[in-house]
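Ticket #4471: structure output looks truncated?

Reporter: J.K.
Steps to reproduce: submitted the chain below (136 residues) through the standard prediction queue, then opened the result file.
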Amino acid sequence: MSPGKPVVSFRSNGREVQADLHGYATETALRFAEEVVEAAWERGAERVALVHGAKHVTSPSASDATGQGRTKWALRQALSRGTFNRWAEPAKSSSHARGAATDRLVLALKPNPRPDPGAPLPEPPPHEYERTRRRE
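Returned output as attached by the reporter:
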């Protein structure tokens, strides 16, 4: 993770909140992702992009074999379990972007009838490890 790079940022005129989950253990990333999704919904955002990396890990079994992509598959499992249901469209919605060969999970949020554009975003937890690049 580069020092000046924000962990949570806005894209598409504030309609999308992006959270970079690099540098976090899987459990920390899941907790932080849930906080970001809730805060984005509070602000009235339409989407949340949870950037997890591991674009090259295209299946949970490949993740088990390489030790990479755990956060990627844990986020998809959390979506399937309904972890984000209070704020996001149902897991089976085609509005989500969650292809296997991508480095992010983009959740489509439910409309907030009373958005607060000034609602605070969660404070990122301290990074637990340095980001490493996959060697080609």
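Triage note (M.O.): checked the attachment and the full token line is present. The chain has one domain: 8-108.
Status: closed, working as intended.
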